[in-house]
Amino acid sequence: xxxxxxxxxxxxxxxxxALVTVLSVALNTPPQVAAPLILISVxxxxxxxxxxxxxxxxxxxxxxxxxxxxxxxxxxxxxxxDLSPAAGVLAIAIAAFLIWLGVAPGRPGANRFGEPPRRGxxxxxx
Length: 126
Known about the structure:
The protein is mainly alpha-helical. It has helices spanning 6-27, 34-48, 57-69, 71-75, 84-103, and strands at residues 3-4, 123-124. It has a two-stranded antiparallel sheet. Helix 1 (6-27) runs antiparallel to helix 2 and helix 2 (34-48) packs antiparallel against helix 3 (57-69). The protein starts with a strand and ends with a strand.
């Protein structure tokens, strides 16, 4: 699928976050961040030399956090009010995972996911 370096990861994360925010405000809908996070994380995990299965944890964690932190879910009785600390712990875990992806060095040379990405902003495809 490909690999991205740390610079590309951080810029992609910022640009996708901005795009999700603008679209959610323009369309008056809650932000949907799981898909962009997973796509960016998969490419970064490949650069680190890890399989993409780890990124699928975001598929569960991000929507769960959105539910736990949603005022509508709490007011409608869908989530117990005492789960707010769980939402905080989950948010910290997601942030720690994303930061780890951004600071972990990529594998030098080619790996099973392709050639190393070039320096600066860029993608390396298989």
